Amino acid sequence: MTEFTIDHKPAEIVKVFPKASDLFKRHRIDFCCGGDRPLGDVCKERNLDENAVMGALNDAYKAWQKEEHETVDWDRVPATEIIDHIVHTHHAYLNEELPALGRFVSKIFRVHGKNHPHLKELHRLYNDFKVDMEEHTVKEEEEVFPLIKQYEENPNDELLQRIHEANGGLEDEHDAAGNILKRMREITNGFEPPADACNSYRITYARLAELEADTFQHIHLENHVLFKNLARVNG
User: Which residues have C-beta within 8 Å of that of residue 81, sequence separation ≥ 6?
Assistant: First the structure.
């Protein structure tokens, strides 16, 4: 592919050009849960300058192509390997980061909440996200992922149906997690700490931005590769 057009969808673009996710986040363009809509439609809906967005996207893509990058064509990777990557990369990250970051979120709310009222909502949103994602990853690892691995070894209609039944609520849960992250970004001004923020405040916002980036990549890989490939089989 030489360049992207307004007919390309954000989810497709991130598969080919992972760094596009940075640009999409700056413009609040959804590339995971709602990433299956043409970029031109998204720009119109968000009142974005279509030419400016496409110009920046293709300029970044051309520059990126000139560099050496190891990219993975996830559509060609077996489901079992994708699952192992999700568990050992994204789930492992959440298991380690969620409790640790939660302590920072609580600390800045306790110390600065009186002067920064939005930290009360941030504290609530973060804890909702933490509980939801902990339950979500357990459901995936204990119920859905083992079924997908079984199906890859022994494809049959009955097993595929069980997968789709078990998977029923996962994408809805992805939508809910994505909406919480979007709201956290909104009330923190894009995770930009105030000028007088202490070191803990700045660390918290930086780690929240990292959490958002990792989670969006995580959801993108599940929705637009793993689950979509299974839906294609079912179709």
Answer: none
Where in the chain are the domains? 10-66, 77-234
**Calculated CA dihedral for residues 191, 133, 125, 43, nearest 10 degrees:** 50
139-177 confidence digits (pLDDT tens): 999 999 999 999 988 888 888 888 888 776 788 889 899
**Which pTM does this prediction carry?**
0.79
The rounded distance, in Å, linking the Cα atoms of 130 and 102 is 8
DSSP string, 44-84: HHTT--HHHHHHHHHHHHHHHHHS------GGGS-HHHHHH
Other C-beta atoms closer than 10 Å to the C-beta of 228 total 14
User: What percent helix, strand, coil does the chain show, rounded to 5?
Assistant: 75, 0, 25
* φ, ψ of residue 193 in degrees (nearest 5): -70, 150
